[in-house]
UniProtKB/TrEMBL annotation:
Protein family (similarity comment): Belongs to the UPF0045 family.
Occurrences of domain Thiamine-binding protein (ranges): 3-92
Gene3D superfamilies found in the cross-reference section: 3.30.70.930
Pfam families noted in UniProt: Thiamine_BP
InterPro entries: MTH1187/YkoF-like (IPR029756), Thiamine_BP (IPR002767), UPF0045_domain (IPR051614)
Protein name (database record): Uncharacterized protein (TIGR00106 family)
Highest taxon listed in the record's lineage: Bacteria
Any one cellular-component term (Gene Ontology): cytosol
Length: 100
């Protein structure tokens, strides 16, 4: 499964990058395949291990912020591996084809 999630600290002002870095650090240290962009961090693995990483990422932010917002989207497809890469590769392959 792939989970894309965003953890946002509330009540800490507008500059939240330091708090978000705490969450991303947890994800990267998990050893699971992951990718971070401007809006979400995606992590791939089995249900329990992915949800554990999300929970620990939220806890890392919660340790320093009075309130935390979590947005989560999951793609649950048993048997699919390397979805983080293969989904993007499929789109890139279609983009590389000439029109018409």
């Amino acid at each position: 499964m792939i989970v894309a999630f965003s953890v946002t600290p509330l009540g800490v002002g507008e500059d939240v990058g330091e708090y978000v870095a705490d969450a991303v650090r947890v994800v990267r240290e998990s050893g699971l395949p992951n990718r971070t962009d401007a809006m979400f961090t995606s992590v791939e693995g089995e249900w329990d291990e992915v949800m554990d990483v999300v929970k620990r990422a939220v806890a890392a932010v919660e340790a320093r912020a009075p309130r935390v917002s979590l947005v989560l989207k999951a793609d649950i497809r048993p048997g699919v591996e390397d979805g983080l890469t293969s989904k993007v590769d499929t789109v890139e392959r279609h983009l590389a084809q000439p029109d018409g």
